[in-house]
Amino acid sequence: MSLDNNDLADKELESDNFLEIRPNELDKDWVMQARFYRKYACLLADAKRAHETAGMHLDVIDAELDRDIRANPEEFGLEKVTEPSIKQTILLQDKHQRAHKRVIEEQHAVGVLQATVTALDTKNMDLKTWESWRSPDSMRSRAPPGLTTR
C-alpha cells in the first residue's frame, strides 16, 4: 500500500516528524509545509475560540452564583454577606471549579498549538535557508550553520 500526500501528512501529524527538515526531500517538505501550517493555524483558531467560550461560560457561572448567594446566603453557609465572603464562596462551588478547570485546559491547548504554529514558522524560515544553500550560486556541499544533514 502506498501513501499519498494526504496519508503521509496524517501519519506525520501524529508525531513531531513533520517539524523536521529532510535535506534529501526538500521538495516534499515544501509541498507539505502549507498543509501542515494551515491545519495547525486552524486548530489554533478553534482552540482560541474554545478558550474564549469557556471564559464566557465561567463568567456566567460566577454571575449566577453571585446572584444565588446574595438571594440565599444561608444556603451557602454565610451568616454575614460581604463582597470578600461572596467571592470566596464562589471559588468553593463545584460549578465554578469545573468551569475554571475548563478555562485552564483550553488555555493549555492554545499554548500547545501556538508552539506548533511557531515551530512551523521556524521550519519555513529553515526551508528557505536550505533552498538558498541549494541554489547554483552556493556551495552545495555545505549545510547551513546550525543545521545537520541526515
Average pLDDT reading? 81
Extract low-pLDDT stretches.
1-9
Order of helices and strands: HHHH
Global outline = rod-shaped
Question: Got a strand count?
Answer: 0
Number of helices: 4
- Structural class, please? mainly alpha
Computed over alpha carbons, the radius of gyration is: 25 Å
For the biggest sheet, the summary is: none
Strand content: under 5%
Percentage of helical residues?
over 70%
State the separation between the terminal residues, measured CA to CA. 26 Å
What descriptors fit this protein?
150 residues; 4 helices; 71% helix
Overall description:
By secondary structure, the chain is mostly helical. The chain has a domain at 31-134. Helices cover 71% and strands 0% of the residues. It has helices at residues 5-13, 26-71, 83-92, 94-134. The two termini are 26 Å apart.
Topology of helices and strands:
Blueprint: H1 5-13, H2 26-71, H3 83-92, H4 94-134
Put the structure in a nutshell.
The protein has a domain of 104 residues.
